[in-house]
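Work Package 3 (structural annotation) set out to generate three-dimensional models for the target panel prioritized at the project kickoff. During this period the team completed the workflow that converts sequence records into discrete structure tokens, so that structures can be stored uniformly alongside our sequence database. As a representative example, we reproduce one entry of 89 residues exactly as it appears in the project archive.
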Amino acid sequence: MNLHDILSDIHALEEDILFFERKYGIRSETFYSAYAGGEEPEDESWMLDFGEWASVYRTWLARQADYRNGIQKIQKQSLSLEGLIRVTA
């Protein structure tokens, strides 16, 4: 994936994250910390949502890391902000 594709993926994942955060009224990092720590949903009807939310959030974290790593590689070439925009566009 190039940086443009990664950024597009991040934005799409953020839309899904916002959906879940609005639905359940908590931030994803709070949810994910509890979920990864083994907390089960109180309502069984939440089970599928929680599994999907956790998956979306993990993918979002991975794409964020991919983006940061890609930008750092480009920045090592001492490019300005304008240079970054041209390289990633």
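The two ends are 13 Å apart (CA to CA).
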